[in-house]
Amino acid sequence: MPRKPLVSGNWKMNVNHLESIQVVQKLGYRLKPADTAKVDVSVHPPFTSLRSTQTVIEADDLPISLGAQNCHWEPSGAYTGEVSAVMLAKLNVRYVIVGHSERRHLMGEDDEMVARKTRSVFTAGMTPIVCVGETLEQRDAGDTETVVTGQVRAGLDGLSKAQLAALVIAYEPVWAIGTGRNATPDDAQTVCARIRAEVAARWGPDPAGSVRIQYGGSVKPDNARAVMAGSDVDGLLVGGASLDPDTFAAVVEAAT
Length: 256
Description:
By secondary structure, the chain is of the alpha/beta class. The protein has one domain (6-254): Alpha-Beta Barrel (TIM Barrel). The chain contains 13 helices and 8 strands. α4 (85-89) links the parallel β3 (65-68) and β4 (95-98). α1 (17-30) runs parallel beside α3.
């Protein structure tokens, strides 16, 4: 069965709860039914904008899934400033980004933390988008495969085959995010294929054939279609371009 692409908009630390209403309303208007029939779409606002965005999506019956950018691995407790997966699930969040490069490199998250968060997202009934990717130094040293497959093995540790088949993996080369140095469609396909091969080797062909693998790294309308042409690329994780409804809708169209 063909894997339906997933295009996700990561709003990062942008848009307040009032602005999020405008962005998601405009996006819902811009998205074409013919495109959303072929591509799943999710948006990932900041925590403070989740409830406002949820309300608009549900009230207007928009063809958009609500996502979050992060979560803690415990369901509750004395973790000041954190938000649990259980709390997100109560807002009808469907997808949660886990292990984004900015969380790994700016906030010090390691593979064990990513694995714990991934399991907590599944336990709460949602789908994790597990991010993996190498830095410029690691790429230039020829360590891309070692780094990425290591993150895949560690981040997905303890998952069942059914969970593996249901989750989303996002390959985001850190060296291609906001650096002016872009990954080519061949770069994206090569690493996504290697990720799928790693899943097949460790968990079997069925999960490998079902898992969706996104590419994220300065995705825009003018390169989205070429990136999506890769046979192992099943979607896109979009950063800055997702903040503009017209631009993001164009990315979704290009992903069909």
